[in-house]
Amino acid sequence: MLDELDFQLINALEIAPRTAWSTLAPALRTDASTLSRRWSRLTDAGLAWTTCYVLPERMQANAASGAPLRSSFAVIEIRCEAGRRQNVIEAIARKSAVINIECTSGSRDLLVNISAISPRAIDRYITEHIAELPGVVGTSTRFVRRIFREGSDYDLGALRPAQRSQVEEIRRAAAPAAIPAPSPLTDQVLQALQADVRRPASEIAAELDISVPLTRRTILGLAAADWVRMRADFAHDAVGWSASVNLWVTVPQDSMEALSSGLSLLPSVRLCASTLGPSNLVLTLWLRELGELDAIELHLRRLAPEARVIDRWMTSRVVKRMGTLFNEDGRRTGYVPVSLPRPSA
């Protein structure tokens, strides 16, 4: 379905998502028109796309205002009545506070990630918008404390070393003189880029009624800001990754930093985060074959012999990921904007 050049193109956009095709073409040993056609084919088929979002804790560090930026993130398990899971999915899939939805194995039917300004707001949201839905039998909440690795850190690994060096040099050469602080203007531009990082600056300028040069400077600065993530993504289960697994791990707190750092280096790790709950570390893995899990668990024990995997969940279907919606075949069908963190009163 996807060939080597397709994967190299996606990998290059993971590193430098807004690079012009003419600039990227030499590194991929092809021409700009070929890359443009390839990307159009991939996006039209729902096999690849780009998204933009912010990391609240880093956004806070760069905020010009003294008002704190409040944001909490939680993992919600939802248990559904028999035969009612799809009804629940349809009721929550287009809610902006619901960032991710996965169908899972085990005692829960759905795994949902919710973001809000505080733990209290998350609790209220679950009570008012999820727990009372027809078909929902029960919910369980685990709050995320710290994210060590997330989807924008994932690397497809399709580029050859020389190609990677070229693409990374392209990204460094595009670094702006100044990084913008969060502001109403950056909010507007980020919202315009959320569903497609590669939108032309002229199109965004017209939409926001600002000048094209100002739009370009703002986008360039945001692309280099450590609190912004512009990410290329792909339909992993539709193009060869046959298994996605969540591991829930208990680890002594004094081993957390070393273990999370070691695990974050594994190419199959999509997410690594500390949590509050029966376990204090969660991993999301993308695997070519389920058998790869044995080696990963052995590696985990070597990194931290006292760590214990207390639960394993298989993801049978991804419904929503960072606002992107998928059909039954795992292809992108749409996007629901993700709310940006706001200063507290």
Q: What number of structural domains do the residues give?
A: 3
What Rg, in angstroms, do the CA atoms define?
20 Å
Helix coverage percent: 25-40%
Give the overall shape, derived from the CA principal axes: globular
What does this structure look like?
This protein is α+β, with helices and mostly antiparallel strands and 345 residues long. It has 3 domains: 4-53 and 155-234, no CATH class; 69-148 and 321-343, Lrp/AsnC effector binding domain/regulation of amino acid metabolism (RAM) domain (Alpha-Beta Plaits, 2-Layer Sandwich), CATH 3.30.70; 236-316, Lrp/AsnC effector binding domain/regulation of amino acid metabolism (RAM) domain (Alpha-Beta Plaits). It is 36% helix and 28% strand. The protein is built from 12 helices and 14 strands. It has helices at 4-15, 21-24, 32-44, 56-62, 85-92, 119-130, 161-173, 184-193, 201-208, 212-224, 253-263, 292-303; strands at 48-54, 69-70, 72-80, 98-104, 110-116, 136-149, 228-234, 243-250, 269-275, 281-287, 308-321, 324-326, 332-335, 342-343. It has an 8-stranded antiparallel beta barrel with strand order 3-5-4-11-8-10-9-6, surrounded by 4 helices. The protein has a two-stranded antiparallel ribbon with strand order 1-7. A hairpin with a 2-residue loop joins strand 11 (308-321) and strand 12. The model has no long low-confidence stretch (mean pLDDT 93).
